Structures are given as structure tokens and as C-alpha cells.
Amino acid sequence: MTELTHFINGAHVKGTSGRFADVFNPATGEVQSRVPLASAAEMDLAVQGAKAAQPAWGAVNPQRRARVLMKFVDLLHRDMDKLAEALSREHGKTIPDAKGDVIRGLEVAEYCISAPQMLKGEFTDGAGPGIDMYSMRQPVGVAAGITPFNFPAMIPMWKFCPAVACGNAFILKPSERDPSVPLMLAELMLEAGLPAGVLQVVNGDKEAVDAILDHEDIAAIGFVGSTPIAEYIYGRGCSNGKRVQCFGGAKNHMIVMPDADMDQAVDALVGAGYGAAGERCMAISVAVPVGDETADRLIEKLAPRVEALKIGPYTAGEEVDFGPLVTGDAQRKVLGLVDRGVEEGAALVVDGRDFRMQGYEDGFFVGACLFDNVTKDMDIYKTEIFGPVLSTVRAGSYEEALALAMDHEYGNGTAIFTRDGDTARDFASRINIGMVGINVPIPVPLAYHTFGGWKKSAFGDLNQHGPDAFRFYTRTKTVTARWPSGTKEGADFSIPTM
Fold it and tell me: Is 281 assigned a catalytic role?
């Protein structure tokens, strides 16, 4: 069995805490490796290395820092197949989906090559008599990222690429469920020319997380995961005086209007609801057809498509639509919620609970499930299921459909399918959700815009990637300068007004 490591000061380092977590092959249910769980002392070793490396890296001009990311992008393209295979082996998602995971992170690395432009300050000539005023964006120092299992390539890159582009050192604490790809990314950054110690990867659980939250030398923290943990990290990190951004859970609604292209809507729901076995924070988990006639047409077309979805291990190739869930615990949680939906009276139109993969009977598979007649008081509506389960909530009108999405505690993403421009514009304007799709089911912004939800899906003032990332990982310093002119003016005891 393989024993994984940390990546500290440019080298693989064995864990010393004596604690390990099992890393499974989700398709077989077998333990394929062990990952060390860092102690607070191990975390401190990484932070001290990052703190020592950061000043020299921060002094490198932005263009030269950007060149490291240029090389990193080249290396990602070179190793795409190897990264995707390692990702699929530990997470369970298909190879095409794994490549998409890498590519969406790569796009943020490409955007961060614009660091010289994004880090330019402002200048005012003659702000007052003989006075110039200018601002500088300077690194915060040592930043940290705590990232989830469902995107083990993309989200780490969303965190460390802008952080190092801004001149910071970075501590990455990836998910212990699929830690190999983050370690591989650190190796590639080193190969691209990033100095040792600027990017550290420390594996761990809550002990490592708490060590990050409490460490006096970590200035900023980014997190993606469930809402309860996001609230915990945000509260504890802020109370320790850190800059914190946390992104939590989701329950993304897709409204289907009577005038929608029904075939297009069904295609969207199948892909967005069941891709990656539903283990996406931007997955569509609630379909909201407006009117019973619309709902009946939707279910009539949707049910056979869901029944026909192909499930299997990533090794089966591109014929597979989605794979297993990441762990046995995740499988049991999803199956329990499906059982609960049936108990609460929802109609289980497609039942995937008994799915078994021949030759992979111990894998963490759940077949695709489709509910109809779900109501907003049901647990399956209120809870983020994070599995291949789509709930249909019938709305009597557009206003009722809009209220469902607006009243839910989560506000990550949403979509509407319609041919009517007035309805689409009204929806985009009024909805209290951070990312909106119009005839687009998964409205994940491109790298040069920002990603972030509202309500209990996000905590903090700034979003991920795009311009907000450069704001989050830097502090603004404003300088007011006047050079002596030889004229003696005397003391002035009033506040300067220029």
C-alpha cells in the first residue's frame, strides 16, 4: 500500500504525527493508499518555511512571477493525462470530467499571468499643492487554502495561483479523501520555477485546519466545503484577525418555463444534475417546472433519459456518464436521504438505490434517482444531497418558482430556461443568488470573472478568482508624498483638506 507524504520546502516529507487516513478506490471500495494527518507542529514547520521563503518571492517583480505560471500552464498541458488518471482513481469521476477539473483550474492560472496588470496601483499627480498620491498592492504574506474533495485540481489552483501571483507564500490543506493531485500540482509548480517553500502542501484533518486558523503567521484563509464548516472556519479565522473567504453548500434550482425548449431543458438537467454523480456545488439538484402541463412534459422526457444513464468505473472509458461517490460514508448518506424522500411522500420516478456494478459490487455506486412532487418542507428539498439525485418541485406560476429559489437558505447558483427575454431579464435582476444561468444550467463564470454565491453559500466580502482574487491576496497601501520646496509654512493643526 502506498504511503503518501506532505510537500514542504520543495520536497516530499513523511508524516510524523503517527495518524493516517485511508484513501479509497471508489470503484472497488478498496483502500489504495494512506495519507498522513498533520499535527500542529507539522503545520508550523510548513508555515515557518513559507514565512522564510515569502519575502524574496514577494520582491520578485510581477512579470517574472507571471512567467512561472506560464511555465506551469505548459506543464499542466504536458501532464494532463497523468493528472486526470490520478484524479479519477481517487475521486471516481470519469476521465473527461477529470480533465475538465484540471482545465478549469488551468484557466485561472492563465488569468493570473495578468498579474502585472492586475497589481498596478493608482497615481494622482498634484493631489494638493506639491503633493502626489499613489497606492500600491502588496502581498499579505502567508496565505492558506482548505479545499474539498470534489475538485481536487481546480479549487486548489483557484486558491494558490492568484496567491503566489500576488507575491504570497501559500499553505494548501487539500481534502484527505483524494490528496494525490494537489501533491502533483506542487511538484509542477516547483518544476515551473517557483522557489521551494512558496507553496506547501500539508495533508490533514480538523487538527490541521485548526492549526491554520490559529497560526499567527497566516494572514489570509480561503475555504470551500459544506456550510457548517464554512461558518466554523469563517468565525474562528476572523476572530483571530485573519482575512477569510469561505464558500459553503448549495441547492441550485433550475426553473423551466412553459415556453422553454423542452429537449434543451432535459439535456441540461441530465448533465447538470447527474454529472460527477452530483458531487458538484454547482450541480442542479432541483428542477422547478412552471405549471402541471410543463411538469408532466418534463418528467415524460426526463425519466427515460435518467433511466438510460450509464454508470461505471472511470476505467470503462468515455461510455460512462458518471462514476461512484467518493467514499462509503457518502454513499450511505445519499441512500439514506433517498429513503427519507420516499418516507416523506415524494414520488420516486426513477429509483437507483439497488444499482450494483458487476465486478464492482463493493464500489461506492448509487444509481441515478429522480423525484417528482417534492415539496419545500421535505428534507430532500432542504438538504444538499451531493449525489445523483434530482428533485422536481412543481410551481403554479413564475412568481411561485422564483420564490422557491429566493426563499431557500442557499444561494450559490440558479438557472432559468425560457424563450422569453422579459422573463429572463426579470429573473436575472430579482434573484438573490450569486451566479445565474439563462438557458445555461451550470453558470460557473470564466476565470476573468468572479465565482461566489450569496446567503449561506458564502461568507466574506470577496469572491474566488477574477479581480476579487487579486484584491483578497493583497493589501492596499496609499502613499501621500510631498518634497520640500524650500518654503517654510509652519505647523498646521487642522486636518489636511488639500
Answer: yes
Q: Is 133 exposed, middle or buried (0-12, 13-18, 19+ CB in 10 A)?
A: middle
Cα 233 to chain center, whole Å?
15
Which residue spans of the chain are classified as CATH 3.40.605.10?
2-248+457-479
Catalytic residue among 112, 246, 281, 369: 281
Evaluate whether 473 touches 140 at the Cβ level (below 8 Å). Answer: yes
Q: Considering only the top CATH level, what class is 2-248+457-479?
A: alpha beta
Whether pLDDT at 489 is above 80: no
Q: What is the pLDDT of residue 497?
A: 72
Enumerate the H helices of 431-472 as residue ranges.
Answer: 467-472
| Listed range (128-142, 166-180, 425-439, 476-490) with the worst mean pLDDT | 476-490
What is the C-alpha to C-alpha distance for residues 303 and 132, in angstroms, rounded to an integer? 67
- Whether the full predicted model's pTM is greater than 0.70, yes or no, is yes
Question: Three-state SS for 245?
Answer: strand
Report d(CA 394, CA 402) in Å as an integer.
12
252-438 topology per CATH: Aldehyde Dehydrogenase; Chain A, domain 2 (3.40.309)
Alpha helices in 148-307 (DSSP H): 154-165, 180-192, 206-214, 227-239, 262-274, 292-307
Query: Which ranges in the chain are annotated with CATH 3.40.309.10?
Result: 252-438
Question: Which amino acid, one-letter code, is at 381?
Answer: Y
Cα three-residue angle 218-219-222, rounded to 5 degrees: 90
